[in-house]
Design goal:
The chain has 271 residues and is α/β, with parallel strands linked by helices. It has 11 helices and 10 strands. Helix 2 packs across helix 3, helix 4 runs antiparallel to helix 5 and helix 5 crosses helix 7. The protein is globular, with a radius of gyration of 17 Å.
C-alpha cells in the first residue's frame, strides 16, 4: 500500500519463515528502507524522524525487526532469518530499494548486501565492528550471559550488561536511564533481542570476506565526534568493500541528527 507524506501507512509483511514483520511507510518517490540498531523500532529510535526528513522526495519505510514492537519472533534466531526479513521488506516496497542502516542495523544491511539481497545503493552509519566482545584477546560469551539473564527474566540487568560490558558506556548510564521511565521501559522491552545483536555484529568483528563480496554502491559513514574505535571500524569496513565511499559527518556523535543524515543520504542516493 502506498503512503502519502501526511498519512503514514502500516503494513504486515510475511518473512520467508512465516514471521510477521510490521512495516511503516511515509512519503512518495523512490523507496528507501531504514534498518534500526539495538533497542530501536518503529515507535522508539531515530527512524521516524529521519523518515520525515526524507518523505518529501522518497517513499521511506522502517520496520520492527523481529522480536521488537509488533513483529513476530520465530525461534531460533539466526542472522539469515533477519536477512530474509529485510529482503521481504524490500520486496514489499517494490524491490531494489535504497537501504540505510545505523549501528547494528548497518551490520544487518551489510550482511544482506553480501547475501545479494537486491538494493540500489546502501548507506551505513557507525557499524560497531570494534571487537568489543574480546577482553585482552580472549573471547567473551556475551550472548550466553545475556541469554542466561533472559531465562531469569532479568531484562533490566540485560540492558545494563549490554550497555556497560558490551558497548562500553560508563556504569552510571544505566542508572540514569532508570530515571527516564519511558526510555527504560522501551529498552527492557527489546532486551530479548540483545543476543541477536551479538550475532548480527559477528561478535563485533568485521566479516572481511563477506564484506568483500558486496557489489552494491556503498557509503560508510562515521560522525566527527565518534570514539576512536568506531572511527577505525568504519575505515576498515570501507576498505573491505569494493569501491565503497567513506565519509565523516562533522560534529556528529553516534546519535546522529536526522537533518544531517538526510542531507548525506540525499546526496549519495541521488548521485
Amino acid at each position: 500500500m502506498k503512503s502519502t507524506l501526511q498519512e503514514p501507512v502500516i503494513d504486515q509483511v510475511s518473512s520467508a519463515d512465516g514471521t510477521t514483520i510490521f512495516v511503516e511507510s511515509i512519503g512518495s518517490g523512490p523507496a528507501i528502507v531504514l534498518v534500526d540498531g539495538a533497542f530501536c523500532g518503529r515507535s522508539f529510535g531515530p527512524a521516524r524522524a529521519l523518515a520525515k526528513e526524507l518523505a518529501d522526495s522518497y517513499s521511506v519505510s522502517f520496520y520492527d525487526r523481529r522480536g521488537r514492537g509488533d513483529s513476530g519472533d520465530t525461534r531460533p534466531h539466526s542472522v539469515q532469518r533477519e536477512i530474509e526479513d529485510l529482503d521481504a521488506v524490500i520486496n514489499h516496497v517494490g524491490g531494489n530499494a535504497f537501504v540505510y542502516g545505523i549501528s547494528s542495523g548497518g551490520a544487518l544491511a551489510l550482511e544482506a548486501a553480501a547475501a545479494c539481497v537486491p538494493m540500489r545503493k546502501l548507506a551505513t552509519y557507525e557499524v560497531p565492528y570494534t571487537e568489543a566482545a574480546d577482553t585482552v584477546g580472549v573471547p567473551v560469551d556475551h550472548a550466553g550471559h545475556l541469554n542466561a539473564l533472559l531465562a531469569g527474566n532479568k531484562r533490566g540487568a540485560m540492558v545494563s550488561y549490554f550497555l556497560v560490558k558490551v558497548i562500553g558506556v560508563p556504569a552510571f548510564v544505566p542508572i540514569m536511564l532508570r530515571l527516564m521511565p519511558k526510555v527504560w521501559k522501551n529498552q527492557k522491552a527489546a532486551a530479548n533481542t540483545l543476543p541477536y545483536e551479538i550475532a548480527v555484529l559477528n561478535s563485533f568483528t568485521a566479516p572481511i570476506e563477506r564484506l568483500a563480496e558486496i557489489s552494491v554502491p556503498t557509503l560508510v559513514m562515521a560522525g566527527g565526534k565518534a570514539v576512536p574505535a568506531i572511527t577505525a571500524a568504519q575505515t576498515h569496513t570501507a576498505q573491505a568493500i569494493p569501491q565503497a565511499v567513506h565519509r565523516t559527518i562533522d560534529g556528529q556523535t553516534h546519535e546522529v541528527s536526522a537533518a544531517a543524515m538526510a542531507t548525506e543520504l540525499r546526496s549519495f542516493f541521488a548521485a
